[in-house]
Amino acid sequence: MPWGFRSSTPMWPRMSSCSWEMTYNTNAQVPDSAGTATAYLCGVKANEGTVGVSAATERTRCNTTQGNEVTSILRWAKDAGKSVGIVTTTRVNHATPSAAYAHSADRDWYSDNEMPPEALSQGCKDIAYQLMHNIRDIDVIMGGGRKYMYPKNRTDVEYEMDEKARGTRLDGLNLIDIWKSFKPKNKHSHFVWNRTELLKLDLYTVDYLLGLFEPGDMQYELNRNNVTDPSLSEMVEVAIQVLRKNPKGFFLLVEGGRIDHGHHEGKAKQALHEAVEMDRAIGQADNMTSLEDTLTVVTADHSHVFTFGGYTPRGNSIFGLAPMLSDTDKKPFTAILYGNGPGYKVVGGERENVSMVDYAHNNYQAQSAVPLRHETHGGEDVAVFAKGPMAHLLHGVHEQNYIPHVMAYAACIGANLNHCTQASSAGSPAPGPLLLPLALLPLRSLF
Ligand SMILES: [Zn+2]
User: Fold this and answer.
1) How many CA within 13 A on the CB side of residue 285?
2) What family is this (predicted)?
3) In the chain, pLDDT over 70 holds for what percent of residues?
């Protein structure tokens, strides 16, 4: 082994590394976010649409869940005494975060209102319920999804007139109250629903933080209300300040989840501004952690059928036109296009002339080859960037479910701990970071 990290060197390698991961689900070439989140959080590939369960669970079939649950690196970190957190711009019970704490045959079971009667009668629980009950001491939870926490028809605190923002729960539970009731009385637990309240908190005294800033997903960064909604990078800053107080270290999952939504809508400008905010969040995390004791992994769960071409010159706006007309239909075209999606436009039997529309608008839908209401994911491999202890293990091409095993190996958490004790029992110096708090920050959804 090139760095001799098992037993012969006093220091584990700390470096930056880049690799590729294969994202397919067990039953799908082109994956969805539920199966992929299960892969890179729980370490096993799964069927599309399922979270926190092995491939023995079939989507929508509640009775295939029991016995097939798999646990996540968030749970492994918690069991090892680390603090743990989830930060997302989607609903906190959306596919990606839910694989960290839930076991569900269907990613769409946000609350019991979205579940079929058969699944309810067979005893399956919705994902919001599982968020509050499965791992009761998750230290930080931030994102959207308020409505799934409240009884059916309860008015939302922010959008009082909006019926779609009202509570959804058929069981009448108030999951915010339940979240509070599970926290020790001698600890400081705070629920906040807007940015002003969040930024007023004295984070040195906060032990548990639940921030739910929208009834559903959070707003796109370009549309964000700076009074009511924190940015992704602000949430990351707050989360790390709370989590890093634990001398044993922390695990934080950060999702720039609306990058994906921008693409599904064919709105490249929204998607790319979400990606820029994700980049700021990575920079924020970088400023607040050290290469010496923090493994940071940045990746996407899957790709999209999103392209950038047309021989544009340097300095051209990425949202601009290619410098030539099509040599076939004699019309201009944008540098950004989609393979499929809602931007397919035919006017008078021909492809729309984009110079007649505002293609630089925030909500412009780039042209696609095939009409679809929702643009699809892509099936190709995606990049994985890593730095910190054991980052070199993310090098070359890997299956997506390899990622949490690398993180667990580096942190000496989870089931496979032999290498952690072998080093010291062999009489060689124990690897340095083994004795130090190790923080893990997977940050995802670049694409
Ligand atoms: Zn998607």
Assistant:
1) 34
2) Belongs to the alkaline phosphatase family.
3) 91
